[in-house]
Write a structure and sequence with these properties.
This protein has 338 residues and is an all-alpha fold. It has 16 helices and no strands.
């Protein structure tokens, strides 16, 4: 190649370097691996000694049936009775299934599809029999602050978004997935609109509901976390209606903001930050890890992962490079073999 040709090559865009050094690069495979690590952590938590005791049945599974419609309540109680006959067998099997899902998502592209298929089934089973569909229909005081509508439904939704339908798709992480970009925005919108509805329910708008929820989680938290939780809870005393109303409005804004191209990154980033605030104050960082009875990481990290899945600001290195290669050299420049 002549010197003039080298000069032309130097003038071509260097988008690839900027993408990998300074840009945010999120891939579908990266989301699959992150989801796999969360599934694996859940499986390891299932091996805790508490899960092998009948307290797990009495304090975790059976309470999700309280106040539920009969078609939800009766199957939960039936499974709890069956599960309790041989806790060692069924709990070990449950833990192994979750670990297998996680490892399948992490270790190889070849095992992603089987792992996701099992995860869809298992997530639905756990959401029904382990979480009572987030207890939304039970009349219990649930709120996004505490993790409603349940973490496991987010595992299912993110898994659908990153199903590898088209391995060659470039762009946002949901490109080539089962639901596509439109599906990703719909999922984000539904999650936050559901949060707005829950905030506006009477039980979450009562005067001291938010204070009591945060203070209740602080009781099992370590001192360094409980101190900040108690401080926030005390500052919100009597302001439950105002705070819930504001958070409902914010939730609607986050739900709708994802449909505006310029507002989309802001809506996703603010949603992720608000989810982390919920996770810290209302979910005790996924607790109660501190007392050995946590079954999952709760919704905070899953909502952050959902934001990353739908995130639009990805590099376009391959297409930019191809476009640059088609730029003709200036007139009078001769390209020859070196």
């Amino acid at each position: 190649m002549s010197a003039n040709a080298n000069a032309v090559q130097a003038q071509r865009p260097r988008a690839s370097a900027r993408t990998h050094v300074g840009g945010l690069h999120i891939t579908r495979r990266g989301i699959q691996v992150a989801l796999g690590w969360i599934w694996l952590l859940d499986g390891l938590l299932q091996f805790q000694s508490f899960m092998y005791s009948h307290a797990f049945i009495k304090e975790v599974i059976e309470p999700t049936a309280e106040g539920q419609p009969g078609f939800i309540r009766e199957p939960i109680l039936t499974l709890a009775h069956f599960y309790g006959h041989d806790l060692t067998l069924w709990n070990t099997l449950s833990a192994e299934i979750q670990c297998a899902i996680g490892l399948g998502l992490i270790l190889s592209r070849r095992t992603v599809r089987p792992a996701l298929l099992v995860s869809y089934f298992w997530a639905f089973v756990v959401w029904w029999f382990g979480e009572g569909f987030g207890t939304i229909l039970s009349g219990a005081p649930v709120s996004p602050l505490m993790g409603a509508p349940g973490a496991v439904v987010l595992y299912l939704l993110i898994g659908l978004l990153v199903w590898p339908r088209d391995e060659n798709a470039n762009g946002v992480a949901v490109d080539g997935g089962l639901l596509g970009r439109l599906g990703g925005r719909v999922v984000w919108t539904l999650v936050w609109l559901e949060a707005a509805v829950l905030w506006l329910l009477h039980v979450d708008r009562s005067k001291d509901a938010i204070k009591e929820q945060i203070a209740g989680m602080a009781e099992a938290a370590p001192h360094w976390l409980a101190t900040s939780q108690h401080s926030l809870a005390n500052s919100l005393a009597g302001d439950g209606v105002t705070v819930a109303t504001v958070l409902a409005v914010v939730s609607v804004v986050l739900a709708l903001g994802v449909w505006l191209p310029r507002a989309r990154p802001v809506a996703l980033a603010l949603g992720a930050l608000l989810s982390l605030a919920y996770w810290y104050y209302g979910q005790s960082l996924g607790g109660p890890f501190w007392i050995g009875s946590a079954t999952d990481v709760n919704t905070g990290p899953l909502l952050v992962l959902l934001a990353a899945t739908v995130w639009p600001a990805l590099g376009r290195a391959p297409s930019t490079a191809r476009a640059a290669s088609r730029v003709p050299p200036p007139r009078g420049v001769e390209v020859s073999a070196a």
